[in-house]
Structures are given as structure tokens and as C-alpha cells.
Write a structure and sequence with these properties.
Elements: H1 5-30, H2 40-51, H3 53-70, H4 83-133, E1 137-142, E2 147-150, H5 162-165, H6 170-173, H7 181-191, E3 196-202, E4 207-215, E5 219-226, H8 228-250, E6 254-258, E7 264-267, H9 269-275, H10 279-282, H11 293-309, E8 313-320, E9 326-337, E10 343-352, H12 354-374, H13 379-394, E11 398-404, E12 411-418, H14 425-431, E13 435-436, H15 441-449, E14 453-455, H16 467-472, E15 477-485, E16 488-497, H17 505-609, H18 615-639, H19 648-664, E17 667-671, E18 676-678, H20 681-700, E19 706-714, E20 717-724, H21 738-749, E21 752-758, E22 764-771, E23 779-781
Parallel strand pairs: 17-19
Antiparallel strand pairs: 1-2, 1-5, 3-4, 4-5, 6-7, 6-10, 8-9, 9-10, 11-12, 11-16, 12-13, 14-15, 15-16, 18-23, 19-20, 20-22, 21-22
Helix pairs in contact: 1-2, 1-3, 2-3, 2-4, 3-4, 12-13, 12-17, 17-18, 19-20, 20-21
Length: 785
């Protein structure tokens, strides 16, 4: 604990007081020869040592005052002393201050040394703790190879406790390491001051160590780490990797491995054989040099994306083979983890899927060509599309279509397609419009042979016009196939590529089938064209015939209208004649008969008054005249049923049924479930005349005993029916009797249909069906209220 200022200054003043007492006691003994400052010098030293510079200076001042007051004449006063005494005081003050300064310097130096020593102890403790915390055996040796420090973990390697080894030589702990690599590196660190790191195997203990030796100011420091388990694991891993590589090198797929840095470090033998490169060339990013430029970015992105996501991936890309050809490969990869889910890298495999891709592209090519053939295209559009489809589907650069001339004497190039961005302009210009004879060039040979043909190397083919231009354009191989219709060759399609391609018989066979389909398409188009010409010619003739028919039709229409007009006039004359007869019967005959009947009744009354025997006979004559008048009036109503408007048709039909029942003794009924009003007199008259004629035929020719007359409305349709139980007759049979013709004519006049058929229980059913022409005015249902 530090001393406070009160203690330090109090100690200084107390020491001055004690020195003053000692001086007073010693003065009588030693006399004037004793300097009064003898006892004050130790006081200054004690005050400066224990109190510091301030208390030391305070002790000097206090000593000056005490000596002046008690020991210098005049004593007991603080007067100005004599020169000798003043010199003594000055000397004491100077020496005292020097003592204070020197003592303070010594005191501060000792404090610094003490702090330095404490810091050194702390540092040594920290270093010792650090060294003790080092895993493995760590120890320090002096220049004579004796132990100076040993850490706690050294007990796992050293044969004795570390306390027993301090001060002893390292060779007492490791006698078997004498004259080994360990001693060599130890001497190099001690003598040459060079550190070293190496692995060391203790054969006697069957242990492996990793040793680090470093020079130090006192000797050397040694760190020994037991790596026996790690070496065993590495050996096991090495054996496992050796087995894996043996299996991987014999696998039928290409295998690769990458580390946690995403860089590939292993490729199996099938991969290296496929690429024709060494492992060093493929390691890291070297393998990406073989990926097709168009696929490289997508391939790398798929791998790195899966790598960062720590998930499986699957991708397809083109990889350059040792023979300089790109092949399609299907690559799959999967991450590898330790037991604590630490990423070790990826392992993946790749298989050649070129054959599958070629098959898929060929199927897609055939499908697209089939789609072209299903469309309605011009010849130019068709062959441009097929040339492009075949070139893109097979990966070829140049395609041309040749057409056989109608005279079958030559074949001419009609269309050309080139894979961008190449132009092959000299070769293209030479091809367009070129004509060849049979057996000349690739198209001529295919035309003559009637089958597909393949040229492996154009430069070696003696029968190839413009071969120099093709070679200058970089074209190396070619093939073609015929477009045929049965045995007839219609044209040829040829294709070229800028690399040597081996003949593919399966492809040629497939393209020959496509050529037959194209030939059928061209024949179909030709047939459609001929049909179109024939159709146009027929259409022209039809239009001419239609114009003639229209003229005839107009003539027929005029004749029909004239016939209808005459028929209508005949009916109007008939109606007028019936009206005239009805009027004559009603106004003339009935009046005359009424007058005769009145005279007969008067005569009968006279004869009865005279009681003549002829009176009953005359009365009988009057009754007969009355009946004749009734019949004549009924007949007149039949000829002229007045105006049939509103509900008059229903009344007239009901009256017709009643008169038929009375006049012919037949059960005749009129049925109308719902009252119907007809405002058109012509329509009502035609219906009434049809019903009248049908009832007359049933009575006269069918000898019916029961007749049902009905007027029914069903939706927008109306029907007038006459059904009897008679035997039928000439007038009720289709095509016989003028009455039937008149009824059919009347039905047509009202846009109706007349139907006559046999009833379910015998007899005849006549029905006239017609539509409601104007529901709101002409034909309407009567309000029962």
C-alpha cells in the first residue's frame, strides 16, 4: 500500500526533531568540534528515501531552521549568523538537496527495476502458460542440450515426469534418437541457428512424430507432435484412394473429383483417354478448355451454382474428344461431406450421350419435316424449311435442292441454305441455277442411281464439279438423297459439311423415306393444283349454267304466278258463283217457296172450314213446302256463309256439323277446346271450304256414321281435322277427285300442309296444318271472359 503525504512529511519532520535532540545530547560530550549538521544528513537521506523528493527537501529546510535556532550563535533566535556559520548552512543546504536528488533518482531506479522484474515474471508466467497449452510435447534446451522448460503435454511422449528431467540432457529422455535425423536437425538449429520441420518415426515405439526445431537465445526449442493416428488415417485414405482410383480407372464412365475450393484435382483414365490430355493439363480449370464455347458458360454456371448451394447437379454439354470432335456428355455431380458436414468437394461422372442426342435431333428433324409437309406451303417455302431443318438437325453447313426438268433431261439447282454466319459465296454462286446431266456430280449420280449417296472426302471424288470451290470454302464431306414418287425421281437434296464425316447408312435410309414423303407431298400439291384448275373451270361453267337457270327460273316464276292468278280467279269465280247461287236460293227461290207455302196454308184452312176430304193432303203439301224452304236456306248458307271474321269460323263450323247431323242423319260433332278468333276472312273461308269438302266426302263416299270436326291450336301451329269412321272412297284417295285437288290448293293458299291418312280404327283422318301468320291480329285465342 502506498504511503500518504501526511505520513511522509510527518516522518521527515519527526526525523529532524530526533536529529536535533541527538545533536543537543552530543554537544556537551564532543564540544565545539562537533558540527551541528552531522545528525541532519542521515535525516535527509531517510526522509528522501522513504518520503520522496518533497519530504527530503522539507527535511533540509527544517534542519536549517533547527540548526540556526539551536546551535548557531546567537542561540535561541533566528538571527543572521556569522560568515563561517553561514557557509556551513549553505554547504548543508547544497549537500542536502544533492542527497535528496540522488536519493530520489536511486529510489526511482529501484522502483523501475522492481516493476521490470515483476513484468518479467508475469511475461515468463504467460509464456509458461502458453507453452503449457501447446498441444504435443514442447521443451526448451540450453547450449548443452539440457532441459530448461517442459510443457504439460510432454508427459504423453517423455518417459519420465518433467520435474525429473529439468537440468538433464535430452538424450537421457530419447536415447534411441541419438545419431538420427533428430540429432542432425538439433545440431543445425544450435550451431547454424536454422530451424527445421520434419516427420520422424520411432521404430522402437512404432510411433510417428511431426517435429519442429527452432533456435533461441539460450539454445533451441523443440515441438514434437504425435501424428501416428493421422499417419494411419492418411495411409488408410491413401489405400482407399488407391482402390478408388483403380475402380474408377476401370469404370465405363468418366469420373472426376474436386476439392473444397471447387477446383478439380482428379480425373480417371477414361476421362483422360477421352480428352487425350494429361492429369496436370486437366486439373484446376484446365478441363473447361475442352467444353464447346457455346456451352462453356452454362456448364460452369451449373457446376458453381450447385457448389455454392451444396446440392446435386446434372447438365449436358459438348466436350472436345481426342480426335478433335465435340461429343455430347451428360454430367452429374454430388457434394462430399465429412461426418460434421464439412464440405470436402464434389465427385462427378460423365457419359457420352452423343448417339442419344443424334437420335433425338433426328427424330426432332423428322417431326419438323412432317409438320412442314402438313402445311399448305409454296415450293420455295417448303424446301427452304426442309433444307434448314436437315442442316440444323444434323449440324451440317450447306444444303441445296435440285429439281428434275419436265423433259427428264437435266437437273437444276433451285434453292440453297447456308448455316450462318458462313457465306460460302463462291460455292453458292456456282451452285445456284447450275444444271447437270444424269451421272454428273452428286445430284446427277443420285438421280441416276435412284438412291442416297455419301461422299466421305470431296477432294478425293473425281466426279464432283466445282470441287475446288468447295474445298476453298472449307467443305469436306457431302451426301444427298432423292425425292421420289414411286419409281419416278422428282428431285434431289444434297448437303455438305466442313469436316470429314463417315458414311451413315442408317441416316441415308431414314432420309430416303423422307424423300418419298416429300415426293408424295409434291404429287398431292400437283393434284390439288390440277383440281383447283378443274374446280375453277367447273365453277365458271356452273356460273354460266346458273345464269341460264336463273333466266329459266324467272320464266317459270312468271308462269307460276300467272297460273296462281288464274287459279285464284277460278276460285273467286267459284266463290262468286256460289254466292250468287246462295243469294238466288235465299232471295228468290226461298221467297217464292215461302209465298207458295203461305198460299198452301191459306188453301188448307179454307178446305178445312169446308171440311173437304183433300184438306189433309193440302196440309201435307204445306209442311213439305216448309221443309223445302228450310233446306233451301241451309243450302244457301252452305253456298255463302256470309263474312267469316272473328268467331264466325267457329260458329260456321259448328253450324256445318249441326246441318250435317240433321240433313244426313250422321253423328257429326265440332270440337274446339279453346276458342280461337280469326280476323282474316280469306283464311277463314279457305278453312271452312276445306272442312265442308271433307265432311261431304265422308258422307258421300265414305258412308260414315260418325264425323269429328276439330280446330286446335298448338304453340304457333294450327290444325283443322276431319276424322270419320267410314270406308273411304275415290275422293279421299291421294291424286283422285277434283275436290281433293281443290282442298290441297286451298291449303297451299294459306301456306298450310294437307295430310290424309287412315285412322287407327279404320276410316279417314284429314288434317290441314298451318302456322300462325300474325298471332296478335290475324289468329288469336279468344278471351273466355
Amino acid at each position: 500500500m502506498g504511503r500518504g503525504p501526511v505520513f511522509r512529511y510527518g516522518l521527515a519532520l519527526l526525523s529532524v526533531g530526533l536529529a536535533t535532540i541527538l545533536s543537543s545530547l552530543a554537544a556537551p560530550i564532543f564540544g565545539p568540534t562537533l558540527s551541528p549538521f552531522v545528525f541532519y544528513y542521515p535525516v535527509v537521506i531517510v526522509a528522501a528515501w522513504y518520503g520522496g523528493l518533497g519530504p527530503g527537501v522539507a527535511s533540509v529546510l527544517a534542519g536549517l531552521l533547527a540548526a540556526t535556532y539551536f546551535f548557531i550563535e546567537p542561540r535561541g533566535a533566528l538571527a543572521i549568523p556569522a560568515k563561517v556559520d553561514l557557509l556551513h548552512l549553505t554547504l548543508f543546504a547544497f549537500v542536502g538537496l544533492v542527497i535528496c536528488r540522488l536519493t530520489e533518482n536511486l529510489r526511482q531506479t529501484l522502483k523501475k527495476q522492481q516493476r521490470t522484474y515483476q513484468d518479467l515474471l508475469i511475461s515468463q508466467n504467460k509464456i509458461s502458460n502458453i507453452l503449457d497449452s501447446v498441444q504435443g510435447c514442447f521443451f526448451s534446451l540450453d547450449e548443452e542440450d539440457r532441459f530448461t522448460h517442459i510443457n504439460e503435454d510432454s508427459k504423453e511422449i517423455l518417459p519420465y515426469p518433467r520435474e525429473a528431467l529439468y537440468g538433464k540432457s535430452v538424450w537421457e529422455a530419447f536415447p534411441g534418437w541419438k545419431d538420427t535425423e533428430f540429432e542432425t536437425n538439433l545440431r543445425k538449429a544450435a550451431d547454424l541457428k536454422e530451424g527445421s520441420e520434419f516427420e520422424f518415426s520411432d521404430v522402437e515405439k512404432s510411433r510417428s512424430y511431426e517435429i519442429h526445431i527452432a533456435p533461441s537465445s539460450e539454445g533451441v526449442s523443440v515441438h514434437i507432435y504425435d501424428i501416428t493416428l493421422r499417419k494411419e488415417a492418411e495411409n488408410a485414405l491413401s489405400e482407399s484412394e488407391a482402390r478408388f482410383r483403380m475402380v474408377a480407372d476401370q469404370a465405363p464412365v468418366m469420373v472426376w473429383m474436386s476439392g473444397p475450393d471447387a477446383l478439380c484435382y482428379y480425373f480417371n483414365e477414361p476421362w483422360l483417354a477421352f480428352r487425350g490430355r494429361t492429369l496436370r493439363q486437366e486439373q484446376g480449370h484446365g478441363w473447361t478448355e475442352g467444353v464447346h464455347p457455346d456451352d462453356r458458360a452454362a456448364c460452369v454456371d451449373a457446376y458453381l451454382g450447385a457448389f455454392h448451394a451444396r446440392e446435386d447437379f446434372r447438365t449436358e454439354y459438348r466436350l472436345l474428344r481426342a480426335d478433335g470432335r465435340y461429343r455430347w456428355v451428360l454430367e452429374t455431380g454430388r457434394p462430399r461431406f465429412t461426418s460434421d458436414r464439412r464440405l470436402l468437394g464434389y465427385i462427378g461422372s460423365a457419359i457420352d450421350i452423343t448417339d442419344r442426342k443424334v437420335a433425338e435431333r433426328r427424330q426432332e428433324m423428322e417431326h419438323k419435316i412432317t409438320q412442314f409437309l402438313a402445311k399448305d406451303l409454296s415450293t420455295e417455302e417448303l424446301f427452304d424449311g426442309i433444307l434448314q431443318t436437315v442442316c440444323e438437325g444434323l449440324g451440317w453447313a450447306f444444303g441445296a435442292y435440285w429439281e428434275v426438268s419436265p423433259e427428264k433431261e437435266e437437273i437444276q439447282c433451285r434453292r440453297v441454305w447456308i448455316r450462318p454466319p458462313a457465306t460460302y459465296e463462291p460455292f453458292r454462286s456456282a451452285k445456284m441455277g447450275l444444271t447437270l446431266a444424269p451421272d454428273v456430280g452428286l445430284p446427277g449420280r443420285i438421280w441416276s442411281l435412284g438412291k442416297a449417296f455419301w461422299i466421305h472426302d470431296l477432294s478425293l471424288d473425281p466426279n464432283f464439279p466445282n470441287a475446288d470451290l468447295a474445298i476453298q470454302s472449307g467443305l469436306r464431306s457431302g451426301f444427298g438423297f432423292p425425292i421420289r414418287l414411286g419409281d419416278e425421281i422428282l428431285g434431289v437434296m444434297e448437303f455438305f459439311e466442313n469436316r470429314l464425316e463417315e458414311p451413315d447408312p442408317e441416316l441415308l435410309q431414314s432420309l430416303e423415306l423422307i424423300g418419298s414423303e416429300i415426293g408424295q407431298y409434291l404429287e398431292r400439291k400437283k393434284t390439288e393444283y390440277d383440281l383447283k384448275l378443274a374446280y375453277d373451270e367447273m365453277e365458271k361453267r356452273v356460273q354460266q349454267r346458273t345464269a341460264q337457270m336463273a333466266l329459266i327460273n324467272e320464266t317459270l316464276k312468271a308462269e307460276i304466278l300467272e297460273r296462281k292468278r288464274v287459279e285464284k280467279e277460278v276460285l273467286e269465280i267459284s266463290e262468286k258463283e256460289q254466292k250468287r247461287l246462295g243469294t238466288h236460293l235465299h232471295d228468290d227461290l226461298c221467297q217464292d217457296l215461302t209465298g207458295i207455302m203461305i198460299l198452301a196454308k191459306v188453301l188448307t184452312q179454307k178446305m178445312e172450314r169446308r171440311e173437304l176430304p183433300e184438306a189433309p193432303e193440302m196440309k201435307k203439301i204445306a209442311e213439305l213446302l216448309d221443309q223445302s224452304i228450310t233446306q233451301a236456306r241451309d243450302m244457301a248458307r252452305g253456298f255463302y256463309p256470309v263474312e267469316l271474321e272473328g268467331d264466325s269460323l267457329m260458329i260456321a263450323l259448328k253450324d256445318l256439323a249441326s246441318r250435317t247431323s240433321t240433313g244426313y242423319g250422321v253423328d257429326c260433332r265440332f270440337v274446339c277446346p279453346k276458342p280461337i278468333l280469326i280476323d282474316d276472312n280469306d283464311l277463314a273461308t279457305h278453312l271452312y271450304r276445306i272442312a265442308q269438302e271433307a265432311v261431304r266426302n265422308s258422307v258421300k263416299h265414305g258412308r260414315a256414321k260418325k264425323i269429328d270436326l276439330s280446330l286446335i291450336k298448338q304453340g304457333s301451329m294450327m290444325s283443322l281435322s276431319v276424322e270419320d269412321n267410314g270406308t273411304g272412297g275415290a275422293e279421299t284417295q291421294p291424286g283422285s277427285g277434283i275436290g281433293l285437288h281443290i282442298m290441297k290448293y286451298r291449303a297451299r293458299m294459306i301456306n298450310g300442309v294437307l295430310d290424309i291418312k287412315s285412322g287407327d280404327d279404320g276410316g279417314t283422318v284429314l288434317t290441314c296444318s298451318f302456322s300462325n301468320p300474325t298471332p296478335d291480329s290475324v289468329l288469336r285465342t279468344a278471351n273466355p271472359l
